[in-house]
Design brief:
Length: 140
């Protein structure tokens, strides 16, 4: 899949801070929503993933705020999965207003944790791939 997965969200009034900007914590929620929607589009529901006793673990987030968002703005939140070797993977995301202006960028480091052993598993890409019905939504 050449383009990253994306989902459209409308900024709601109750998500704004006292200056009328989107509250900084909500940017992370938008990105989390896009990651789960990407998994769902790939055929991996939360229940399906958790039935394997494996769950996602975010190890690091770096958010870069570029331009403000205000109530009523429509944004596309992208999700690009970046696979590598070992126990971790990266997720690169952008929050883009419909006029093309990038409002924020998020770079995440994550892994999959064995919920019984409480340890990261080896090769999370392989685990995800086995569960997918549409692997193109996760960059496979």
């Amino acid at each position: 899949m050449a383009e990253p997965f994306q989902v459209r969200i409308v900024v709601r009034g109750y998500e704004l801070d006292t200056q009328g900007h989107l509250n900084q914590a909500i940017y992370l929620q938008y990105c989390e929503h896009a990651r789960w929607e990407s998994l769902r589009a790939a055929g991996i529901s939360q229940d399906k993933l958790l039935s394997t006793r494996i769950g996602p673990a975010v190890l690091e987030n770096t958010m870069r705020f570029r331009n403000e968002l205000r109530g009523g703005d429509e944004v596309d939140v992208t999700c690009k999965w970046v696979w590598g070797e070992g126990k971790i993977f990266h997720v690169e995301q952008q929050i883009i207003r419909t006029d093309g202006v990038v409002a924020a960028e998020l770079s995440s480091v994550a892994g999959l944790i064995d919920l019984d052993r409480r340890k990261l598993i080896d090769n999370p890409a392989e685990h995800f791939y086995k569960l997918t019905e549409h692997p193109e939504f996760m960059g496979f």
